[in-house]
Amino acid sequence: MAANYDGFLTTTFDNVVNWSRKFSLFQYPFVTACCGMEYMAAACSHYDISRFGAEIPRFSPRQSDVLWVVGTITHKMTPVLKTVYEQMAEPKWVIAFGACASSGGFYQNYSVLQGIDRLIPVDIYIAGCPPRPEAVLDGLMELQDRIQNDGPTVESKMINPQAIRHQEAKIENQANVSPNMGYDTPKGFQQKEALREE
């Protein structure tokens, strides 16, 4: 936190670094479905996402620090999404854009991942099918607030605290990390049929 002493402002190094981080977000848009139109609308001049320092999409994970997962993620896409996430440098943040990325949306079947938080840690969920650009900007401002107030520190080795909490929950078996939970894959159907026959 900052303190003002007769014209002199004092703060911590972590606060200054996180303040600069929240206004220089390099985004990686992982766009797979119809939510991409609303993502593009939020980036255009009417809503102007560049006011928040997040206007430059980087299509290399090594140059980005915010992963926007926009649209439906199927089980075939999960290795690609996981690879993109792992190639991003720390600290990194993830935004689940829309109902499909957040919870599978109306695709309640075996081929669709029922929420990307079963695969990678998510910092912000933006609701809607598709979300309005105002909701996108609200989610971005919420992420900026989290970076400033709950951002990476020297003690956490500059790793996003949400990623640390996600990893701890996976270790303690509290997180719902099975991508197939509640829905059977074709292989799962075959295994159930084999059990019935026995």
In words, what does this structure look like?
By secondary structure, the chain is α/β, with parallel strands linked by helices. It has one domain: Rossmann fold (3-Layer(aba) Sandwich), CATH 3.40.50.12280. Helix content is 38%, strand content 12%. It contains seven helices and six strands. The chain has helices spanning 13-22, 35-43, 78-87, 98-103, 133-150, 161-171, 186-197; strands at 3-5, 8-10, 27-31, 66-70, 93-97, 124-126. The strands form two sheets. Strands 3-4-5-6 form a four-stranded parallel beta sheet. Helix 3 (78-87) links the parallel strand 4 and strand 5 (93-97). The radius of gyration is 19 Å and the shape is globular. 33% of the residues are buried.
In short:
By secondary structure, the chain is α/β, with parallel strands linked by helices. It has helices at 13-22, 35-43, 78-87, 98-103, 133-150, 161-171, 186-197, and strands at residues 3-5, 8-10, 27-31, 66-70, 93-97, 124-126.
